[in-house]
Amino acid sequence: GQSLEQPSEVTAVEGAIVQINCTYQTSGFYGLSWYQQHDGGAPTFLSYNALDGLEETGRFSSFLSRSDSYGYLLLQELQMKDSASYFCAVIPNQAGTALIFGKGTTLSVSS
Amino acid sequence: DAGVIQSPRHEVTEMGQEVTLRCKPISGHNSLFWYRQTMMRGLELLIYFNNNVPIDDSGMPEDRFSAKMPNASFSTLKIQPSEPRDSAVYFCASSMGTGVRKDTQYFGPGTRLTVL
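ok -> structure tokens follow
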């Protein structure tokens, strides 16, 4: 079967650093993506890892360890506007473009 | 670029009625996806097309659901007859399908469907 596990909720305060973990078990693996979704909005692409290591995009970074079937999204200098749901998604094979999404992690940032 | 366009944005209908959701993908994208999102089940892939051809429809719940993509710039998702359990937000997404970021999906604003 295919499964992605991520925490359902995370809370933090402004200015803090938060790490959202994602572990996956899929029949194939080509890469790991992260998407952000604000309440009432559509998912939007944040980052992508195909190789092991850290990818940095401004305040957000994403990490992948293929041997551990594990990745995380790191959000630094948290702002209130970062309150949203964050989804990890696996690209199961190189040929296709379909994604398998996790259930999402709801991040609440307070002042 | 206008992004992925979906219509209607909201739809309220009665059980048994036919519902048609529409999607216009980003120009030049050759993969199109239909998702359903609910609190209980999260974001579920219903079907996806590549170059207008359905590739995987294993997520379509049952025969009441059907999807078409008659050309590269238009797709429909139809539910007939609709049931209250179909109430959800339906997203359409598209991706380039080629290049370094071929898998990055761009989502439309969604259609919030309520079946009474």
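Chain A has no helices and eleven strands.
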